């Protein structure tokens, strides 16, 4: 039987996403009406409007949509696997490690792989280290989170050391990966992210039932026919893939992976992992954060990563200070 509440939530979040996208495309130093924006997207606008929408803004907005969705899905997955609201890629250090590796490829320290490949390598390295340091508990418990926080701090320090030892031009080229920015993103990296996100989402839809059983005790999940080890390994791998590809495009905007799943979980029916709702919420959140960063202090631009941190940090503190955090379900 269809879940009417989740369908309604997804429809509302999709509508919000469309509004956010069109607003971001039409807003900037050059204001474009909604009608002209739609005409440009359909290839029916004048050359100037077409240039502003399709050449200057569209790739940036698409990058925000894809990065937000990927980070939110990765956060929802990691929270489900760890059964902990704090277990997101940004908090356990995956973002920072992916950023460090991506920066290493940009500043030219002998690692010539593309930022996408390097970011994936960094995300995988951080996950493996955190998993190993957590010991027998794997992704469960606070030991995994504490290990990840330590790894993230080390990765952030390494990034700063690399930036301090290279020429100013190289440091400026790598700067967007340290703060989280959608400005002038590489179209090829965006295409790779789009392919990875599509693949990851299809796989997640195929294993949704198994992921839902992870909310129960292991014995119950096994009794329901879930292959726990395979599901956890696949989920962890998808989280690394999505995080690495997203960071290779926009840098560390980690709090998206915390806020978007929380919003989706609050709106959706309890007992289900809100994967689609998380992706839609994450995409909207990052597009709006980028829009605010471009608009609030124009002509100065505040990176989307800083805007998301300003919005998300108080909520993170609220989670930490609550005496009895509510269940993920």
From TrEMBL:
Position of the signal peptide: 1-26
The subcellular localization recorded is: Cell membrane
Membrane-crossing ranges are 59-78, 90-111, 117-135, 142-163, 192-212, 233-261, 304-321
Q: Which Pfam families match?
A: FecCD (PF01032)
Q: InterPro entries, from UniProt?
A: ABC_BtuC-like, ABC_transptr_permease_BtuC
Q: Which GO terms describe its cellular component?
A: plasma membrane
Q: What is this protein called?
A: Iron ABC transporter permease
């Amino acid at each position: 039987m269809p879940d009417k509440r989740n369908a309604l939530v997804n429809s509302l979040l999709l509508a919000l996403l469309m509004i956010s996208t069109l607003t971001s495309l039409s807003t900037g130093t050059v204001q474009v009406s909604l009608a002209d924006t739609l005409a440009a997207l359909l290839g029916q606008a004048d050359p100037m409007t077409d240039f502003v929408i399709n050449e200057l803004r569209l790739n940036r907005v698409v990058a925000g949509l894809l990065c937000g969705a990927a980070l939110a899905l990765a956060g929802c997955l990691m929270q489900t696997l760890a059964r902990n609201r704090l277990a997101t890629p940004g908090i356990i250090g995956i973002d920072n490690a992916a950023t460090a590796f991506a920066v290493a490829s940009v500043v030219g320290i002998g690692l010539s792989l593309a930022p996408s490949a390097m970011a994936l390598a960094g995300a995988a390295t951080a996950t493996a280290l955190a998993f190993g340091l957590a010991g027998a508990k794997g992704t469960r418990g606070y030991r995994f989170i504490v290990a990840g926080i330590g790894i993230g701090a080390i990765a952030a320090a390494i990034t700063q050391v690399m930036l301090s030892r290279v020429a100013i031009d190289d440091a400026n080229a790598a700067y967007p990966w340290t703060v989280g920015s959608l400005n002038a993103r590489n179209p090829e990296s965006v295409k790779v992210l789009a392919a990875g996100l599509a693949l990851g989402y299809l796989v997640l839809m195929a294993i949704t039932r198994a992921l839902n059983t992870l909310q129960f005790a292991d014995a119950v999940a096994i009794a329901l026919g879930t292959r726990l080890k395979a599901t956890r390994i696949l989920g962890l791998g998808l989280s690394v893939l999505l995080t690495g590809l997203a960071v290779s495009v926009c840098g560390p905007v980690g709090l998206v992976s915390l806020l978007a799943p929380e919003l989706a979980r609050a709106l959706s029916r309890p007992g289900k992992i809100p994967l689609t709702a998380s992706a839609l919420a994450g995409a909207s959140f990052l597009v709006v954060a980028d829009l605010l960063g471009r608009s609030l202090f124009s002509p100065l631009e505040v990176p989307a990563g800083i805007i998301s941190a300003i919005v998300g940090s108080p909520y993170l503190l609220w989670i930490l200070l609550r005496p009895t955090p509510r269940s993920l379900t």
